[in-house]
Amino acid sequence: MRDLFPTPSVSPSRRTLLRGIGGAAVLGAGIPLLSACGGSGTSADPKTVTVGSNASDAVPKKAFADIYTAFTKQSGITVDVNTKDHNTFQEQINSYLQGTPDDVFNWFAGYRMQFFAAKKLATPIDNVWQKIGGNFPNAMKALSKGEDGKYYFVPLYTYPWAIFYRKSVFQQYGYTVPTTWDQFVALCKQMQKDKLVPIAFGDKDAWPALGTFDQINFRANGYDFHVELMAGKASWTDAKVRKAFDLWAEILPYHQEGAVGRTWQDAAQTLASKKAGMYLLGTFVGQQFTNAADREDLDFFAFPEIDPQFGQDTVEAPTDGFMLSKAPKNKAGSVKLLEYLGSPAAEQIYLKSDPNVVAASTKADTSSYSPLQKKAYEMISGAKHLTQFMDRDSRPDFTSTVMQPALQKFVRDPKGIDALLTSIERQKKTIFASS
What we know:
This protein is an alpha/beta fold. It has helices at 12-21, 23-27, 58-75, 86-98, 111-118, 126-132, 138-143, 167-173, 181-193, 208-230, 239-251, 264-272, 292-296, 331-341, 344-353, 371-381, 390-393, 396-412, 417-433, and strands at 48-53, 78-83, 104-108, 154-158, 161-166, 197-200, 276-282, 298-301, 314-316, 319-324, 358-359, 385-387. The relative contact order is 0.20.
């Protein structure tokens, strides 16, 4: 994305693409067009490491190239990059990993990583983390571990979800940032009285609503329950889930009407034009603020506390990085590359070419960060728990075929929650029972 936190590999198209992946990405459907650089018969070259990359957009592609150039200069090992467009990479990742993949590949933290680790399609990298562990906060370490407790992932950059607002609007109306649910609801009511749309909302592409549910669920029920629910272990008919939907139903009247027919970009414009008071989204919302003065007027706060025992200790922060394939041809060289990718030096090179993403490491140089970047960085590094996003924390076939249409149905008509949750649970059992 652009402006504040331009993470082009986490773009609007990514979310759109994830909708269409369904079971293909997880269950291996589709034609295995994605293959390694050298093909299946290539023998190992101790001076070359191959990387399968989904960074097809120009900005991250250059940023990664700069990292690999620096690594080659330091180590003498050449990095042979196999870049595929995001759609192809996403859809064919399972077939690719079961075939003859590159030594190292770009992927996502959390459940997405754990899924392939559990299927033995990735190699544990505990030895890498012995070198880089001191560079990352505990929450980032947790995101990098498989279900077996071993490390499989090296994070590079991340960005948080939060509630955005215009400082000048809050100043004009005398609003204060809410920290509790009651304060948040009261602010929504006041904004409505002031003829503002309290919460901008656009769910045409069906993924923004996933983020709203995530925030309410882990604030109301805690990180542990949220993770269990996303992993298919907790029931969608649990009273805790019903509570989350009841809370959402309480604030739904303060959301922008007609959300299912509106893109997130159009919703963001209502915040930019000061017609809406708040907007819950990732930091990429800033790309809609093309005027410098408007960007400087943009600020955000963490989603308010619902249950005091959980406070605001969980932050949704999708994280991108790297994994080691199941049988790398140059394992020793791959380990060296992963160690380098987990260093502050690598992150600072990346940030120089793509200066607005947020470093995953707590040791990266943040002196050039904008005020919003610094705030985002502090929010993430200070979090007790980090989540990714529903389509990364759960099975993509479940989120795309079940949760996205279910949440759109709820947004259109919040009645009949029990029947909706019963339907979700029934479909979840079928999907999670498949391998």
